[in-house]
Known about the structure:
Elements: H1 3-35, H2 39-45, E1 60-64, E2 73-77, E3 80-84, H3 94-100, E4 106-112, H4 117-120, H5 123-129, E5 131-137, H6 150-161, E6 165-167, E7 173-176, E8 179-185, E9 199-204, E10 207-211, H7 217-225, E11 234-236, H8 248-254, E12 258-261, H9 273-282, E13 285-288, H10 289-292, E14 295-299, E15 304-308
Amino acid sequence: MNNSKQYSRKKIFICAVSLVLVIVLSFLIYVDAFFGISAKSVYSFFGIREFSSNADSYPLSVHFIDVGCGDSILIKCGDRTALIDTGSFSLNSKSEYYLKHSGVNKLDLFVATHTDSDHIGDFSSIADNFEIDNLWISNFCTGKKSGFTENEKLFFKKISEKNINVISPECKTYPFGSAELQVLSPLKKYNDDNDNSLVVKLKYKNVSYLFTGDSGEKAETEMLNENTNLRSTVLKVSHHGSSSATSQKFLNAVSPKYAIISAGDENKYLPNRKTVERLKNSGAEILRTDRNGNIIVATDGNNISVFCEKT
C-alpha cells in the first residue's frame, strides 16, 4: 500500500473520531434540555467527574458559585436544595450551568437577598429552567419609593409568570430539612437598599454559615444591638468585601473560621484592601471566587471539608 493511501485512511479515521466526539459533546451539553436527564448523570456515565461531586457524600454542602462580582450560593441538605441569589445576567448563565451539572432539578427555596442586578440579574434563567417552590424576599425590597429598575420589573414579572410562592420571612428560625435557616436582618427599613438585604444563618448540628448579601455597617450595628447570636463557622463576606461592610465589631461577633468573598476581575476595587486585612487579622481563612473559582464548604455537622476549583 502506498503512502498516499495510508495517509488518506488515517485522515478519514481522524475525521470520524472527531465527528463522534463532537456528537458526544453536543449530547452532553443539550441532554438535559432534550431528554430531561440530569447532565450530572450523563457525565458520570462517561466517567467524567463534576467539581460539585466532591460534596456528594456530605449531608450538607454549600457551593459558592463563581459568577464574577455578584452572589450565587447553592445549598444542598439531603434532598433539599436552596439557591441564594443568581449573579448578574449572562447569556451563558453560570448559576444555571452549575445547578444543572450538580444534579439539581428543582429548588425548594430561592432567597433573593435584595434586588441589585448582580444578585438577581440571572433570575429569569433560573426560573425558566428549574421549578421553584418558595421565594424569600424582604418586604422592604418590594415597595421602593423611587420605583423599580427595568431589571427589577423583569424579576417580579417572572415571579408572577411562574406563579412562585413569595414569602417575606420574619426574623426567626425556619426548618430546612435536617438543618435550619434563621433570618437575622433586616430589622427595619433602611434608606440604603444594601442594608435591606436578607441576612440568613444556616445551622447544621455544630456548624453554621452566615450569608450577608450586601448588608452594610448600619444593618450590622442593628444586629449587634439586638444581641443576635452571629457566631458562625463560615462567613459569606458582605458586599463582595466592600469597605462599607464587615466592621471590626461585627467580625469579632461572627468569629468565622472561613471567610468567603464572591468577587470578580471586572471590579478592581473589590474586595477592599482594608477589609481583607481585617479578615486576615481575625484569623479566618480567606477564600475568593476570583482566585479559587467555585468553592464548596461541606460538613457532616462537626467536621468541615473545603474544595476549591482553583488552588
